Amino acid sequence: MSTILIVDDEKSMRDLLSIMLRKQGYTVLTAEGGEQAKRIVTEETVDLVISDIAMPDGDGIDLLRYVKQSSPSTAVIMITAYASPKTAVESLKLGAIDYITKPFDVEEIRLVVRQAFDRRKLIGKEIIWKSPLVGNILQLVEQIAPTNSTILITGESGTGKELIAQRLHAFSRRKDNRFFWINCGALPETLLESELFGHMRGSFTGAVNNKKGLLEVADHGTLLLDEIAEMSPPMQVKLLRFLQERTIRRIGGITDISVDVRIIAATNKDLGRLAAEGKYREDLYYRINVVEIHLPPLRDRREDILPISEHFLRKYSVQLGKNLKGFSQEAVDLLVSWEWPGNVRELENAVERAVALERGDEVSRSSFPERMLTNTPIHGSIPVDENAPEIGDGFKLEDYVQQIERSYIAKALERAQGSQKKAAELLGITPRSLRYYMSKFGLKEK
Ligand SMILES: Nc1ncnc2c1ncn2[C@@H]1O[C@H](COP(=O)(O)OP(=O)(O)OP(=O)(O)O)[C@@H](O)[C@H]1O
Ligand SMILES: [Mg+2]
Questions:
Q1: Strand 247-248 vs strand 257-258: parallel, antiparallel, or unpaired?
Q2: 298-377: which CATH topology?
Q3: Angle at 228 between CA 225 and CA 233, to 5 degrees
Q4: Which of 118, 121, 179, 344, when mutated, tests ligand 1's pocket best, judged by the most ligand atoms within 8 Å of its CB?
Q5: Of 188, 184, 157, residue with least CA distance to 426
Q6: What pLDDT was estimated at residue 381?
Q7: Is the CATH number of domain 381-440 1.10.10.60?
């Protein structure tokens, strides 16, 4: 469970935030001032600090500096007075991942906190590369980042699409404003609509308050629409209308609100083909695909494998307190010859695991997963597209779908190394659904 520390000298503010965040399932600690906060950060594992910027015993900026030094992996969000945009920007430069201006609404906090946790995994991640393919992509990224064009990022799972989206934001004029991310495939249609466009109180059962959507909250910033191919046809129409008009209307609302949001869409599907086959709105496809950035799979840019592996070797050696001098020659041969169906994400997991398991002074071949050593592809790489079984010949759709479900569940469990919570997150399902599938398919954790 994630722990949040709230730092504010006003009791009412601490109470308000604690109640709300506890409701969201976070563990919440509170501090009345900077000194107490510093003690807590040193003694406890805190994932996120939300601190007021102005406090009687020293300012929040000082606390921010302290946290970034003593516990760099802890994320910090500053609460600033509406009149001080300068301090807000200064805090971002010092490593705060976001800021909230007072007065704020509870919805905004909820979104910003959730995004903070979604994003934490990517903060500070460098893009490591050697292949000219990636070099060209990064050059294109720098060229188009400052424009407002909508961008489509395509590529297999784990190739770095989200990383590139972050970089587009970081190199844009919007960099001091927010970057938001939403997975369009993970939410049912009405929820997705309300997340994107917001809603008015009473517009549907469960809409107990007015709520701003991401498009409104991300005004002047960037919004990454991940898994854009999974959007339902009615949502496709709504998104198309937004891209044409650049205005939104909350569900149940009567006014159109203009917003200035740069849209980046990402998918691991061939959206052009889906559009050509009539499975996706063609007009939307053209609106999204103003510029396409395609990230090639790792197996098509093998020069990148070793530099990336070495990067992760250093990272995890530090994290796990190991002193490893490199990879053995056999390990290198294995790394560069493996197909990497899960791309960079799979490579990162493999190296992390190998570093953890290694007992010698360099990473040996035998510390890599069994499936790599026996050269059988990962269960999850059952191709859904080209090599799918033909219809006819006793083909049964439901059986095939179950086979795919099972393979993904197994793959996620394997990647999550036994953590059901992490596996569920990887799949974008709840731990409860995960357990359901596990028992349905007779899968046990490792
Ligand atoms: N060139 C790279 N250098 C360093 N790390 C990388 C590189 N490319 C990807 N990664 C890391 O690999 C992981 C997967 O990247 P990312 O989440 O961006 O992939 P993705 O294409 O969005 O995947 P998915 O389609 O599954 O969402 C991340 O941890 C990312 O930081
Ligand atoms: Mg992604």
A1: antiparallel
A2: Helicase, Ruva Protein; domain 3 (1.10.8)
A3: 125
A4: 344
A5: 157
A6: 43
A7: yes
Strand 3-7 and strand 48-52: the pairing is parallel
> What gap in Å lies between CA 279 and CA 273, rounded to an integer?
8
Single out the residue of 243, 291, 303, 300 nearest to residue 266, CA to CA. 291
Q: Which amino acid is at 347?
A: L
Q: Is the overall model pTM greater than 0.90, yes or no?
A: no
Count CB atoms within 10 A of the CB of residue 74.
18
Instruction: Answer yes or no: same fold for 3-120 and 132-295.
Output: yes
CA distance 345 to 222: 24
Nearest residue by C-alpha to atom 29 in ligand 1:
345
Is 380 near ligand 1, meaning CB less than 6 Å away? Answer: no
Class of domain 3-120: alpha beta
Q: Which class would CATH give 132-295? A: alpha beta
How far is Cα 102 from Cα 218, in angstroms, rounded to an integer?
17
Tokens at 132, concatenated: 């000219």
Q: Is residue 127 in contact with ligand 1, taking CB distance under 6 Å?
A: yes
* Residue of 184, 345, 348 with the most ligand 1 atoms within 8 Å of its CB, for mutation: 345
CA distance 112 to 433: 26
What distance in Å separates the CA atoms of residue 320 and residue 357, rounded to the nearest whole number?
10
- Ranges of the chain whose pLDDT falls below 50: 122, 377-384
Provide the residue type at 214 as one letter: L
Locate the ligand 1 atom nearest the alpha carbon of residue 166 and give its number.
Answer: 18
Distances (CA, A) of 429 to 183, 187, 354, 409, 412: 12, 9, 28, 10, 11
What is the reported pLDDT for 387? 62
- Report the pLDDT value the prediction gives residue 284, as an integer from 0 to 100: 97
183 lines ligand 1 (CB under 6 A): no
Domain boundaries, the chain: 3-120, 132-295, 298-377, 381-440
Q: Rounded to 5 degrees, what angle do the CA atoms 392, 396, 397 make?
A: 110
